[in-house]
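Predict the holo structure. Ligand: S-adenosyl-L-homocysteine.
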Amino acid sequence: MTGTLTLVGLGPGDPNLLTPQAAAALADATDLVGYAPYLDRVAPGAAIRHPSDNRVELDRARHALTLAAAGRRVAVVSGGDAGVFAMASAVFEAVEHGPPTWRALDITVAPGISAMFAAAARLGAPLGHDFCAISLSDNLKPWPLVTDRLTAVANAGFVIALYNPASTARPWQLGAAFDLLRALLPGDTPVAFASAVTRPDERIRLTTLADADPAHADMRTLVLIGSAATRRIPGTDWIYAPRAVPVA
Ligand code: SAH
């Protein structure tokens, strides 16, 4: 029996946003590997579940690869897209540094709808022109690198999707990021807090950079920061990026 490993992005939460490819990989798997709350989102079936804690991505990746090498059909699950601040990097890192046999494994990445796309869909078209995604977590990179990158992209006019904006262990970073950005961008730049998007307790708040309150973000929030070009249609909560940037 030949083992397989599929990296599955589950999307933001609504089962309608799970792709047919991802659903087929989950249904076909003999083993499901992932952070326990993500595994809980997978419909019950015959597959053996291997839940793990947060922050053990590399151990989880090696475990999944070991199972696949033993002939199992393994699905490794992530929320959103598996390649955006998620398990695909950990699996490929483990492949590069693991036994040579892992390089010959049958690995597939099944993409998913990332939180920034689900959030943008609620807001209008804020990602319609140049944008970037930054994880505000300094667990895997030094904080000064985060502030350097925020400064660079704000000065370059990118719309910014902030992942991992806050958690109980990281309470101050988002406030520091807003303070930094207020010195670089107009106060009326649109800022959106999109929490638990497509879940029953979804909450979308649209405000401005001047008024943005970091207390509105937690680990289930995607914070979207517009650019000076981002438009809010008067009388509505729609924001969008104009298609063209005028010649200065
Ligand atoms: N791979 C995931 C991101 C994992 S990092 C993806 O592509 O979406 C975890 C962060 O993603 C959270 O802190 C939050 O910022 C964001 N996130 C994930 N699901 C979300 C949802 N349903 N609503 C809002 N933000 C979400």
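The pocket of S-adenosyl-L-homocysteine is lined by residues 12-13, 78-81, 84-86, 114-115, 119, 163-165, 194-199, 219-222 (CB under 6 Å). The mean pLDDT is 96.
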